[in-house]
Specification:
With 205 residues, this protein is α+β, with helices and mostly antiparallel strands. The protein contains six helices and six strands; from the N terminus they run αααααββαββββ.
Amino acid sequence: MADYQAPYNLDSMLNELPISLQYSEDSNNAKMLKVFADEMVNIQNLLNKIETWRDVDNAQGKALDMIGEDHGVYRNGVDDDFYRFEIKVKRIQRTTDGTYDSLIKLVANSLNADYSDINVRPMYEDESKEPNAVKITNIPATYIDDPRKKQLVLNQLQQSVIAGVRVALVQYVYQTAMTAYISAFTQQQKHHYPILNESNLKGVI
């Protein structure tokens, strides 16, 4: 739609005039039609802009606010880029059904990651043996370009699990040559555990 070129211009209108009428650019006919042609082009450009700004990737300012409010997401002072991310994550979260596959889809689509990168497992398989909790691990930290995204994804994951189940752990992995860090994001808090490691081992953040 954004690439659409309106057919309403002076040349196209002059070409529609019968040959018996004068249609040179300095004729009265041309001058009159130019007024209409210019206005029609302006209107079409405005319609194109409105259509383009209905897309969350293109909308800015108040137009973006209106899209967010339609999804129950309010700006609260954040910039356009992060606000777009909030809206997109909310859209994805609304399609989840609490299954492990839908949680993987939520994380992967929110961060533009590969589905195969993300693992979702029940906590009862761990030492904690917690029956009503899950953990999401192995998310590449390279997909996180804003620290606020980690907390937002965690919040949306917690809203996506079935009633009575909590997200106990969300882990991000990265490549490091010297030190690996483990960051455990839970619903309540965040911990950092620095660990000395050998070169080129995977760390978890």
